[in-house]
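Chain X:
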Amino acid sequence: MAPSLDDVGELASLSVLGSLRQRYEGLEFYRDLWWSMGDAGLFGMTVPEEYGGSGGGTRALGQAVSRFAHDGCDMGLTLSWITHLSLCIKSIELFGTRKQKRAYLPKLVSGEWVGAAAVSEPGTGAHPAGIETKAEKKDGGFVLNGKKLYITDGSVADLLVVVAATGESEGGMKELTAFLVETGAPGFSSSRMDLNFLKTSPHAELTFTDMQLADSAVLGAPGEGHSMASRSAFARERSLVLAAGVGLFTAAAQSCGERLVKKHGSFDLEGKEASSWIHHMSALEAYESLSSGLLEAAFDDLERWRKSIDLLIYLGISYAKWGIWLGDFVVKNQIEPSFPLDIILNDMKLVLIGEGMLFKEGRKRYIQPYEA
């Protein structure tokens, strides 16, 4: 049975928020907390019951992720959940063979294993043309060599969806294939990268050295690693991050409001300041409604999601502006950014990074046509 929002909120407010400061300062990923999330049914909310999930709908998942971020104030762990479900679990559910689903989904849904995806590389990010990691065909399988950077949960993952070049198409383009890679196998190594935010979600550099993969490790069809796995996974991940952002922003705004009242004895905003506050609070309601529809498209109708890329660009840039506004509000009103507000404000850097990526896409669509 899928967890209720109250169940999600209780787990987040007690176990997640209760250990947040310690995990953040210690740069720790708590396996026992991860197992609790699995026991609560968070990882199987959209997975069929035959593989251990509850078979629920996408809208309920978005609401749960938003509530988890709001009550737990931990965007790092929320991102780990998003990565685990949207990039790894859902990719196997959609494109895996029945044997792959039986082998991996129960372990991932229960929380016994941590799943992640390895696409981004040095100097190119996740752009398919720049991927240098190679999987060369050998007798009975492939040999994997290469590096990946900034991989969420890369140092704690048990299973990776790895996108690697397996040749070239007739048009000279790189042929990209997705593989299911168990990190316990020989030839894999990882080192944690030192980020100054999202500290509860370990990001890592991964190295694959002459790693032997069987033919059965291919996820989906050879050559469709980008169009089938990587691109659709991107849609699910980005859309869930938008849902989580609404919850995190709301928690931050509530904390600011409460601290302002405590400091001055009343919520004494007037004129333009009051108007700005109302504007930004109403924006949260709009973000929630818009991100919900985008999330359903990402999970249930990828073609409709692609036609909604303008909405993703709009929300991404708007989120960044919202985060900057709140930071300025804290400084202007001399609000003490103590726990957990300090962590929330720090983790909002994720929004700024996302905005930068989406701004590039927006420039291509709305500025470059006039520069030709």
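Chain Y:
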Amino acid sequence: MTTLPTRKDEAWRYADLKRLAPLWPDRAPKTRTLTGAALHLDDRITGTGWHDEDIEINITPGGHLTGIIAQTADADATVTQHYRITLAENARADLTLLSHGAAYARIVFDVRLADGAVFDLGGALVAGGDQNLELVTFARHLGPNATSRQTVRAVAADRSVVSYLGQVAVAREAQKTDAAQSFKALLLDRGATANAKPELEIFADDVKCAHGATVGELDRAAMFYMASRGVPPGAAEALLAAAFVDDALSSLPEDDTSRTALAARLETLIAKRAKS
């Protein structure tokens, strides 16, 4: 039996511990391991119940991991998905996360970067109702000349909560590190909440590291402009919300089914607001 984490652990600061408490004593996560130079991840998280999995991914020198994680579990589901990724010298990982299902979903990326490695993550969280969607990332720069990029966009409606905790840790040996985190959240309703905790821990002295976090509402000037062009308010809101999350989905084709599903979820939330 594993002890339930507490909020004293910074990585669990915004977690829905009440929902996890009755499940945690019987925790027995599924495990999966991927190793190689040419890897592709296609994780589609659907259905009911508790989805709990630990995934170990080892990318060999010069290798490349591409992939998508689409979390569209049923409204009463719980998701705790933990990706541990090791990037060897000059290896690369390009991943996209789309999370808009489940009552509570916590996706974690714990990434270790060796000399010359590259980690690029685009993430979109879209929540409504009483959902609580969480993304936690650790980018551990252990060798020099590595690059990490995290672009995360979140939209929250009703009483939902979206959270991003992202740590970039640069070891003393990791000179010439280039790391960036960008988190932006859009609140569609006054009862919605966005939590952000970007963090830099740097022990090297020749690095380029940046992070930023903003939370706001729909741009009223843009809404006025679209209204002046005859676009109905609901359609204008849906277009602006879709454009907002698009920054995080640049690596996905326009006709990708996961991208289409995310857009449909946004449209549903906007339509619900129009009726209320």
